[in-house]
Design a protein that fits this description.
Elements lengths: L2 H8 L9 H14 L1 H26 L4 E2 L1 H37 L6 H10 L1 H21 L1 H10 L3 H7 L4 H12 L3 H29 L3 E6 L2 E6 L1 H38 L1 H13 L7 H22 L10
Antiparallel strand pairs: 1-3, 2-3
Helix pairs in contact: 1-12, 2-11, 3-4, 3-11, 4-5, 4-6, 4-8, 4-11, 6-7, 6-8, 6-9, 8-9, 10-11
Length: 320
């Protein structure tokens, strides 16, 4: 098998620049190909908040009714679960990015291998998420436009911290460098993924609330109460979280493919990856008996010529 055919058999996707359609199509294929792994990794991070969101209302409700005090208590408990999730989410994120990169290169890591890799980048990723998140939020609060600018400029910080193993500030500079000259492309692709995914997700969630309403608002003299349907609440909460995982993972996969596309366009990353895969695919050179015999003959002739040079008066080899 030639190197080229070995690469084609090994690569899941063709190497080269990607159009917007390519990014979305390959993102969907990658998502579906490793969906169980992606769900498992995300559930590791989201389990605390899912448990809280399901159990807290059921525990605080009295005869299926949540008063305002119970609602405030539920919000506090949910906030605590969210903090735990924010601490665990970088682990899942790093593992997912590792799987995406390996799948793009034609390799298939296990969940355990992805988690082992993620542990090596955990604290760096936590720092990157906190710093970049604060910068983007500050930009959105002060004025909407700077927040969008920062979100686009630092769109690939997570990918760079995880996949290139750079520090936080170095990753921010690197992301800015990659985005330079392609800012509108990055804005368009990420905006399309986020807006389209968010709209579809909202439609599905609203449809669930219509078909399986989990709560009903009851006006009172002092405000309102919530009448809770326990069965529908469990179904809606679980379905909402599964849907959120699906679209968040799809967005992460597409962002990583966009990151790879920019590296291909600006740095020839596809050629470097092809060369790497070619070295891995090249079979070891086979020695045959003819080569060994010819090497022995060449060595023998070389020794004869060296002896002749040292003894010019001696009979030449081959002289009669």
């Amino acid at each position: 098998m030639s190197i080229e055919s070995a690469q084609e058999a090994k690569m899941k996707f063709p190497l080269g620049e990607m159009t917007v359609g390519d990014i979305l199509d390959r993102g969907l294929k990658l998502l579906l190909a490793r969906l169980p792994s992606f769900y498992l990794l995300n559930l590791i991070a989201l389990t605390p908040v899912v448990i809280v969101q399901i159990c807290a209302p059921l525990a605080l409700a009295k005869d299926g009714i949540l008063d305002q005090n119970a609602i405030f208590s539920m919000l506090g408990i949910t906030f605590l679960g969210t903090l735990i999730t924010l601490f665990l989410q970088p682990l899942a994120t790093a593992a997912i990015l590792h799987i995406v990169m390996e799948e793009y290169a034609g390799r298939r890591p296990t969940v355990g291998q992805a988690l082992s890799f993620a542990l090596t980048r955990f604290w760096s990723l936590v720092g990157a998420l906190l710093l970049v998140g604060l910068i983007i939020v500050a930009g959105l609060v002060l004025c909407f436009v700077p927040g969008i600018y920062f979100a686009v400029t630092y769109a690939f910080v997570i990918q760079i911290v995880v996949l290139e193993r750079l520090g936080v500030t170095q990753a921010m500079q690197r992301s800015k460098q990659l985005v330079s000259g392609y800012r509108w492309r990055v804005f368009g692709v990420l905006g399309l993924v986020q807006v389209a995914g968010g709209m579809f997700q909202n439609v599905v969630i609203q449809g669930l609330q219509i078909v399986l309403p989990s709560q009903r608002v009851i006006p009172t003299d002092g405000g309102f109460r919530l009448e809770l349907n326990a069965q529908n609440h469990v179904i809606d909460t679980f379905a909402t979280q599964l849907l959120a995982i699906l679209f968040a993972t799809f967005a992460a996969v597409c962002t990583t493919l966009l990151y790879l596309d920019l590296r291909i366009r600006k740095e020839g990353f596809d050629l470097a990856l092809a060369a790497q895969l070619g070295e891995e695919s090249s079979p070891p050179k086979r020695r045959d008996r003819y080569d060994d015999d010819r090497r022995d003959d060449d060595q023998h002739d070389y020794d004869d010529r060296r002896d002749d040079d040292r003894n010019p008066d001696a009979p030449r080899h081959g002289d009669r």
